[in-house]
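STRUCTURE REQUEST FORM
Protein name: Replication initiation protein
Source organism: Streptomyces variabilis
Requested output: structure tokens
Priority: standard
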Amino acid sequence: MTNAATMAGLDPATLADVLRLAGSTGFDRIQDQIRRTGGCSDPIHLMGSTVTRDAATGHVLHAYSTDTEPGGRLRIACGNRRASRCPACAWTYAGDTYHLIRAGLVGDPAKGTPETIRDHPRVFTTLTAPSFGPVHNRPGDRPCRCGVRHGEDAPELGTPLDPDAYDYAGAVLWNNHASELWRYFTIYLRREIAKRAGLTQKDAREQSCVAFGKVAEYQRRGAVHFHAVIRFDGPAGPDDPPPAWATVDLLTDAIQAAAARVEVDVPAAEDQPARVLRWGTQLDVRTIRAFGDGEEITEQAVASYVAKYATKAAETTGTVDRRIGNKEALALLGVPDHPARLITACLDLHALYPDRKLRDWAHMLGFRGHFSTKSRRYSTTLGALRQVRADYRAAQQRAALGLPDPDDEEATTLTLAHWTYAGHGHTPGESWLAANIRRDLQASRELAREALTDMRSEGEDW
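Status: completed
Returned output:
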């Protein structure tokens, strides 16, 4: 890890700290702790101890204290979902989101959804924001309205053709109310389904259930839009087949009608007019195929797409991933003009709409909702997935220490633990070490995934 090739280009302070770490007596243990966090960028430091005793005899079976650790601290992963804050923990979060979405598409009995879920009607829906003014874009093979054919990574993409005429106030107010637009959409969707089935809403609920899993994504212009898997189930949930009338065509038609009905009123305030917020006209609804069959929208593609954006937020537009207290900070932080104007609009509108907390969410361009949500019956939960992982690691640790399984009826162990928070983060050298460990771990996992995919493909060919 600490050879000359990988250390080339380090600044003097980081290099000095790397050399200090490499020569310290606790280096191997520090490296092991960082590896156990997956290369977390901002680990939590704990101080404390744990003792496991035989409850009947009081005999100590195992004892651990951070007094034996380098610096007297134990590092655990921060768990932050943002890739801009911690790529390692975000990678884990994305994996959990992938399995959550995938379980609601292909089924996974271990995660509470049967494999018969593949036969249920389901679609991949994208709901977008309306226009707040023309922006630089890439309209197919044609040039942009400005007359230029922009490259895929052109910095001007998503920025207004005329910033002074762009409705920045409308854009951030729309972001701020996006979660309410989604909530009304789910209400109207159930009503439109009942209408198309020729049933009352009560009868429709007694015969069917609509489940969804969604993720929010920022467009380059700074407007939030939602990607959602929407699925028909029977009234009892995933284990229950939907009624015959619950088809993909009916679901698609109901989604389009529900999106068109949604309106959220924003009252006038001083120089701001009253507004009626709606979804944009770019509504996309596509059937999700159970197997490839040459179709682009497959279960694998949908789960991967949703997981990809579960760890990203407004920083993808050029803003920052933490709160901004005033306009003067924008220049100091180097925020580009377009997101800076959106943030300024949030700060200016805060006094007019104090209940919307626009100042607190200015760095998010007004959006204050959850990035990844699901209905109760869609599939498993992120908490359940984390618990499975924690239980697996705990079982590994018990096996390594020779401790009995606490679920064993004959086991009579008692564990007492005491932990206190002792800080967070890395020294410069530890940050460099964590980044290298994270890259190595992810490279190994990607190779293992590719090998597993190749094995499955060869099996299908047989």
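Reviewer notes: The chain has two domains: 4-82+383-461, 87-132+167-380. Residues 4-82+383-461 form one domain.
Form closed.
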